[in-house]
Amino acid sequence: MVIDVLYFAWLRERIGHPRERIETEAVTVRDLVAQLAAMDDWHASALSDLKAVRVAVDQELTDLDAPLAGAREIAFFPPMTGG
Amino acid sequence: MVIDVLYFAWLRERIGHPRERIETEAVTVRDLVAQLAAMDDWHASALSDLKAVRVAVDQELTDLDAPLAGAREIAFFPPMTGG
Amino acid sequence: MPARLQAEAFDLATELQGFGSGAGAVVTFSGLVRGEDGRLTGLEIEHYPGMTEKALESYGLEAARRFHLSDWMIIHRHGRLEVGETIMMVATAARHRAAAFEGAEFLMDWLKSRAPFWKREITADGPGQWVEAKDTDEDALSRW
Amino acid sequence: MPARLQAEAFDLATELQGFGSGAGAVVTFSGLVRGEDGRLTGLEIEHYPGMTEKALESYGLEAARRFHLSDWMIIHRHGRLEVGETIMMVATAARHRAAAFEGAEFLMDWLKSRAPFWKREITADGPGQWVEAKDTDEDALSRW
Prior knowledge:
Chain A is of the alpha+beta class. Chain A has helices at about 10-15, 30-35, 40-45; strands spanning about 1-5, 20-25, 55, 60, 75. Chain A is built from three helices and five strands, in the order βαβααβββ.
């Protein structure tokens, strides 16, 4: 399947772009992270410490074990600092 | 000694006036309450349920056992309902 | 003076101009006259002149000290107020939100039960019952 | 819409006009850009377009439901802000003060850690460090 992957804040900066379209067979978010981290050093560096990474599937916060079936947009970002 | 005694809210209404000057030998607030309650039915009625009465000596909240020595102004009133 | 007692209405926006400059968090609380489904036309607020001003200032200073507030303000009205009017406000400013919230709640709990104000209901027939103090307001003080 | 995201500055007083009509208690919280003793000139706030709006609205509706708020409002800015500017505000209205305070604190705890905003410091030299999330903000959520 094809999904849009988005990055924010310092994840976006380390990877070098805010969004990319990815062809994947990943079943869970964790599978997708493994695929992305294997793409190049920038992805590997941005996704190396998963405790510092939050994830949203189709704009809903979730966790690494969330299934990807039917998802169109996955976002990775650091812990949020609004308010 | 001579002190000013003030009443507020429904205590003021039951007693019929907002303030009076009282000659007293009372040692504590409780002694003064006994003297006032003995004056007439209006005072007796207003001061009959002491759980519903709060007291301030010289504009500081205190309790019935507070000493009166040196006090100039004693106020009696119901529980407060500001804010 | 950050603590003020007055009969006149006040405007929240005007009062807040320049308030809390340099702080990261500002909390305001406003208390309004409720109509109680049309039963009331307003409230009459009696107070103890002299003691009231001292009480407001002392609770404000205590809140500033306990919660490290960089700024605080209390305005409380007395006299006759119509339904919908603002009875009083407190504002607190601090570096972070927890202190600003706690300072405002502390002030409100103290003002409700320890500042010498008494509210009386006004209905279409004129002055009515004195508002009774609530046990929950007295209990609220025990947390500080 | 009671939840709003915008780059432009807003005015607390204008936003509060008519807010909480009929309520007895109104609480507001405003978050301001701190200068950190002159170290910063401002903040840049990044967000996740689409998700942000949905998150603000869903937390607002949840607060209204849990605390029986008669009215609520969230405004959050994004983009470049100078020191002293207002980053965001929440307002809550309820019959009594406890619900208005709790609703506002609930909203702030959720917005701080669960709404997709990221702050970056701006110094005289330009964009600096990303602000790090605080464990205390994460912990604050556990009380609800």
